Amino acid sequence: MLSALQNPRQAAAQLLNFGLILSTAFMMWKGLSVISDSPSPIVVVLSGSMEPAFQRGDLLFLWNRNLMEETKVGEIVVYNVKGKDIPIVHRLVRKFGLGEEAKLLTKGDNNLADDTELYARGQDYIERKDIIGSVIAYIPFVGYVTILLSEHPWLKTVMLGLMGLVVVMQRE
Amino acid sequence: MASEEKISVYSLADLKNTSDDALPAYLNSLSFAQSHTLTDVRLALGYTAFGICAATFYWDYTYGFESTKLLTLGAVILYSLLNGALTFWIWGVEKGTVYVGTNSKTGDKITIQSRTDKFVPMYKLTVTTESKDGKKETKKLKMEFREWFDEKGAFITKPFQRMLASSVAAIGKVDPKNAFPLKEKKEKVEDNRSMDEKWASLLAESAGNVVVEPESNGASTSTPTPGKGKRRAKKA
After folding, report:
1. ipTM of the complex
2. Under a CB-based contact definition with an 8 Å cutoff, are residues B175 and B161 in contact?
3. How buried is residue B66: exposed, middle or buried, by Cβ count under 10 Å (0-12/13-18/19+)?
4. Residue A150 domain-assigned (yes or no)
């Protein structure tokens, strides 16, 4: 470590190793975003409103391109509501009209009522542009780590710090 | 620098890194001018890629996904290209090169690549020498790390330098003090007796008999003393 500080090129190279790990992860994420046309192509289920299809902590892969066909009733979609930060995973249960203008209604499989309650004040339906993707694949439970991390934020700091230290100190 | 730090002798990475670091320190002291082109290209590629990533992060954060989609697509492609070039540079061009330098006196250019195999404590060097008139020569060296690390993990400069100066002509030329012919080891043993004779003399010695040694072996063995002289001396 100390010898690395005496040699600026070696220090720069070690810092670069760390930077490249972070940036490659980020660019892979962005690449996936661009391919799936979704700002957030992988999401984690946070609530039990879609049980038994999805449990808390399931990892969902999204696809947001309508190739040759429209988003149909029965699809599980992830959508954003104006004024709310967290996207919601629910099933599309009603559709009026066609294309971009179609009025869509969603409902959680495990919920008694449809989602009108969850939409913004005065909003009775969502549109295609609110949807950030339909679920095309999922891995059960893997995402639970992120739930842990968001519920205990100090874990994030600890993890990042450890990762950084390991990469900077070792040259293996 | 390296000789003050102690490393774990069981860590192959430590052994290799310390030896790699010792190479430029030694060669630069022999009026070799180190060339950093390989490293600089690698750093430039890497940091450009990182810069693109940082820019992508910035515009994604400030302008959102939808309005910057095309820009992001371009950035992703450019990033993969740069990363691919970087990988090619490391595996295809650098190939573990730890030193490139030209000697200001003789004009010899040497390139040293180092390598270790997993869990085998051998230092493998490929030394390419290019003399002033363009004659190229490649030499492969394979040495055990224990030749220049003591059991506590301290780096011993002398045998390391001697190893390089003795086996690479271009280095030996500018560091004649360390350049030894490789037959050096033979000096230690000049005992020409056969195994049987040695055995017999050992037996005779333990029985307390006087042993007459061949002339060449003088100092290391017992001087002819009568009877049980040695044992008595120890007891007294």
Report:
1. 0.80
2. yes
3. exposed
4. no
